[in-house]
Amino acid sequence: MNPKTDKLVRRTTMIATVTASYFLLTADYGPEPNALDPIKNGILAAQRAAKELVFGTKKRHVESDVKKLDPKRGNDDP
């Protein structure tokens, strides 16, 4: 085989392999737990840490978010 053609075939194969493995690893497995959950949680934790580093931490409470979404729940405050 021509060396240029061989190089093109090898690069195309590598790109196709990487793309296929990416789609297989990031596929939607639904709500049930699976083996990739620890990896996903690690990626999300790193993403949160990077956002906090760049944008700073948000000091809002979860309760205030719930009150904004459902005002009926927030009426029991004194």
How would you describe this structure to a colleague?
- By secondary structure, the protein is mainly alpha-helical.
- Helix content is 64%, strand content 0%.
- The chain is built from 3 helices and no strands.
- The protein is elongated, with a radius of gyration of 23 Å.
- The relative contact order is 0.05.
- The mean pLDDT is 77.
> What is the general shape?
elongated
Major sheet: none
Average pLDDT over all residues = 77
The low-pLDDT segments are none
Percentage of residues in helical conformation: 55-70%
Amino- and carboxy-terminal Cα gap: 81 Å
Taken as a percent bin, the fraction of beta residues is: under 5%
Judged by helices, strands and strand pairing, the structural class is: mainly alpha
Rg computed from alpha carbons, rounded to a whole number of angstroms: 23 Å
